[in-house]
Design brief:
The chain is α+β, with helices and mostly antiparallel strands. The chain is built from 2 helices and 6 strands; from the N terminus they run H-E-E-E-E-E-E-H. Keywords: Membrane, Transmembrane, Transmembrane helix.
């Protein structure tokens, strides 16, 4: 094997790893939580949130950390599942406080 082939494969693996690690983030945008996973947004309406709680663990989800937030929704049609979604924002407590404040403002 030539050296350029090995460099090409190693760079490809490094780029794939970086894309997987940094291609997931979350934000609150008006009346929705937007989850960007692999640069594809998924919108969850805040008005459909039933429960928000802290959780931890190492099972594979959209969360990049073991300190996560579990969000249960009232309407199955949003995620096509009754299972809660788990995300791991940088500031878990601040994110939960902001989310709970926004959900209480809704009528």
């Amino acid at each position: 094997m030539s050296w350029w082939y090995v460099v090409f494969v190693c760079e490809g693996i490094t780029l794939l790893y970086a894309w997987l690690m940094f291609g997931c983030w979350y934000e609150i945008d008006g009346e929705d939580i937007v989850i960007y996973q692999f640069f594809r947004p998924t919108r969850l309406p805040i008005s459909k949130i039933k429960d928000v709680k802290k959780t931890s663990g190492y099972l594979a989800t959209a969360g990049m950390s073991h300190l996560r937030v579990s969000i249960s929704l009232t309407d199955r049609s949003v995620l096509k599942s009754y299972a809660p979604i788990e995300i791991s924002p940088k500031d878990r407590d601040g994110f939960m406080t902001q989310l709970k404040c926004l959900s209480q403002i809704r009528p």
